[in-house]
């Protein structure tokens, strides 16, 4: 497929951060371009860059009202959803550090990482993540609040540590009215050598170890990839691999903001392959096992096909 224009390499200076670059993109695209789409109830729902900006701003200011400060940790767990990315970007805008956990992390793993990272806030998708938080909160004294976004099954929950993302955004809106320049001021304070993400090793041979990455690390990682395989603002990318994996962070955050391509979030992890076919992404990035599974799926369907379809496949190959 042909692309409009060409990829332009940005200069990654010592003062450049992910939120500063994200802010430039939000100001450039505004309502003119879709930043991301999420499939809900069978429909792809577009979210513009202006909506992306407003949501991140209100979450960030809401986090500040909960006591988040520069260098504080925000733990996150759940499926790939726009709200998860908004929360991560919000934490970075404040000057905080995102700490991602895999969706299927066991309670002991969650407890260890929350406690070891000194996370002040936790962001989770819904009831499953909330239950894990409530089970570990007494063992993690530095954890102050748990933010959730999916209301399914949450009606009876009233623990004071819990706050919905909608409530948080309302709080952020009020803060923005009182201090309209605060959000931009926080972004301006960031430096390229500030820590932005904390990744933990799998812990298969010993306790998990944390690896700190700066804004400069993340931006140059994406830039080096695009020097080999450039991406464009007209491209589509499907975000379905765990945000706790650095490869997904490189694509969705670093490359996504530098290139300005559109992120697409599947309806459920189980529908990811079907949703990928619907979007027809220009860009895919995954570990070898994912491509191996795709090949196996094709091979199984080939063996189950009729003689005429198998012959058509062989001719096409």
Describe the structure.
46% of the residues lie in helices and 17% in strands. It is an alpha/beta fold and 317 residues long. The chain has 2 domains: 18-286, ANL, N-terminal domain (Rossmann fold, 3-Layer(aba) Sandwich); 288-317. A 7-stranded mixed beta sheet has the order 7-6-5-3-4-8-9, with helices on both faces. A 4-stranded mixed beta sheet has the order 2-1-11-10, sandwiched between helices. The mean pLDDT is 93.
Give the helix/strand layout:
Layout: H1 18-29, E1 34-40, E2 43-48, H2 49-65, E3 73-77, H3 82-94, E4 97-101, H4 107-117, E5 119-124, H5 127-136, E6 145-148, E7 162-164, H6 165-178, H7 182-188, E8 195-200, E9 210-214, H8 215-228, E10 236-238, H9 246-259, E11 262-265, H10 272-279, H11 288-304, H12 307-316
Parallel strand pairs: 1-11, 3-4, 3-5, 4-8, 5-6, 6-7, 10-11
Antiparallel strand pairs: 1-2, 8-9
Helix pairs in contact: 1-2, 1-9, 2-3, 2-6, 8-9
